Amino acid sequence: MDNRNEAADRKRQPEGANPPANKRSKTSETVSADVQRASNKTAQQPTKIHYTRLRRRMDEEEEEKLAKLGPDPNLCTTKLTDVNVDCLEHIFKNLRLIDLLNVADSNKQLKPAADLVFASRYGKQWIFIHSRYKSILIERNMCPTTVQIPRSFRLKLLRCFGHLITKLDITHDKHMDAYVNEYCADSLVEIKFQRCKASTLDDLRKPFTQVRTLCFDSCKLGSKLSELDKWFPEVRRLEFNHQNESDCNETAVHLPKLRHLSLFLPADEKNHLNKKYFEELLRLNPNIRTLDIGGHFDAKYLQNVSKYLQRLESLKFSSIQHLSDIGNGTVRFPNVKRLHLWGTALDHSLTNFISQHKKLTKLTFSSIGHCEEGALLKITSPALVEVDFGNFHFPSDEVASFVAECPSLKKLTVAFGNENDYEAFQKWLGNEWREIKKYSYYHICRVTIER
Questions:
Q1: How far is 102 from 116, CA to CA, in rounded Å?
Q2: CA-CA-CA-CA torsion for 320, 323, 325, 330, nearest 10 degrees?
Q3: Is residue 369 within 8 Å of residue 390, measured between CB atoms?
């Protein structure tokens, strides 16, 4: 009977009041902590909701008050894009090129001011983008200097500022030719290709309408070389420097505005632009006024081309083969006024060649050494205005006789064998001439005097 009553009491007892001995049971302290946390959570929940609603209502009321009062006059709400172009230009002048490039590439509204800064700072400078350089070079004061902009930015530079670049010197690089043609075709005035591949010209899609000076230096030129008049219709100065190659039998073209031509004639004509191509180019362009010819050629080649260049006014050439044939009267440029000779000896043959050109006003030598006795007096002319004998040195009495026989002479550069010869020459000159430059080395005294 007692056993049945104990079982009934256990059934009526709440679960967990007397847990079995084999199960983990909560202590009285744990139960009290749980109850306290639950009560705190229940008490905080309505307070948090009430605070959120109150804060939202206060914010709304504050916004309504501000809207009624209007904008605060002391609060500046002007954005950078609201500033006029002149002020932005003044601000952007302090930026480096790479920062200026990032500004132009990031916002269309800021780009006009960035364009003005780039145009004033770099618009008339030579920009060099070469594959062998890690940075882009920009010419300053006739000297290329490194600008702090990585070469990886070259395409972005052309895309953002290509329409402002006027002078560009590039080597062939992937995508470079297409970018130059796309973004610089209407702005470039001078362009120089170095070590470019045949595809440089073959990939052109539109002409360079403003290019006046075009230079190829050690390039491989493709079939479009025969279409230069189409792709460079305004070219006035054309230069082929060093060994330019072509795998095609190119046809020379007539360039109606061409006035200056610079040629380099190779010794080995295999795969190079050969002498026949250049001779044909001269024949088709008789309006050339200045000719600079170097490389490997002889007096006979000059004789062949001279008949096409009767209007030539300026001639420059380096040492040639069979120089003795140049003074026999068969090589003549009747209208040449400026003559520059490089690496040639002032001997009897050359003095005969010079004396045949009576319209010479400027004569320049880039050579060094002694001359034949009396050679200086053979080239006197009443038309000469400026003469630079380079490092050729003469006796003082011979120089004095030369000056006396050239009444129009205004400027003379000449070398003397020693200081005593120059001092004797100075006494002869008197006060009519003045010394503007003097340079002494070893026993040579090189001076420039001006009337």
A1: 15
A2: 50
A3: no
Q: pLDDT tens digits, the chain, 451 residues: what are they?
A: 455 555 555 545 544 445 554 444 445 555 565 656 655 555 555 666 666 777 788 888 777 776 766 655 665 556 777 678 888 888 899 998 889 999 999 888 899 999 999 999 998 889 988 877 777 888 766 666 667 677 788 889 999 999 999 999 988 776 788 889 999 999 999 999 988 877 777 778 899 999 999 999 988 887 778 889 999 999 999 999 888 887 666 788 999 999 999 998 888 777 788 888 899 999 999 999 999 998 888 888 888 899 999 999 999 988 665 566 676 777 889 999 999 988 777 778 888 888 888 899 999 988 765 677 778 888 888 899 999 988 888 888 888 889 999 999 999 998 888 888 888 888 888 788 888 988 887 778 889 999 8
Strand pairing category for 167-171 and 143-150? unpaired
Residues 167 and 125: beta-carbon distance below 8 Å: yes
Q: Which residues are CB-contacts of 384 (< 8 A; sequence separation ≥ 6)? A: 360, 361, 362, 363, 406, 408, 409
Bridge partners of 369?
A: 392
391: its two tokens: 């490092």
Extract the tokens encoding 311. 């209007």
- Provide the β-strand partners of residue 392: 369
Beta carbons of 104 and 92 less than 8 angstroms apart: no
Q: Which of 215, 200, 325 is nearest to 262 (CA)?
A: 215
The count of other CB atoms within 10 Å of the CB of residue 446 is: 19
> How much is the pTM?
0.77
Query: Is residue 355 within 8 Å of 378, Cβ to Cβ?
Result: yes
Q: Say how far residue 434 (Cα) sits from the centre of its chain.
A: 40
> From its phi and psi, is residue 72 left (phi > 0), alpha (psi between -120 and 50) or beta?
beta
351-366: b (≥16 Cβ within 10 Å) or e: bbbbebbeebbbbbbe
3-state secondary structure of 194: strand
Structure-token pair, residue 29: 């302290």
- Measured CA to CA, the distance from residue 84 to residue 279 in angstroms comes to 57
Sign of CA dihedral 326, 329, 330, 332: positive
229 vs 253: CA distance, rounded Å: 7
Within 13 A of 297's CA, how many CA atoms are on the CB side?
Answer: 22
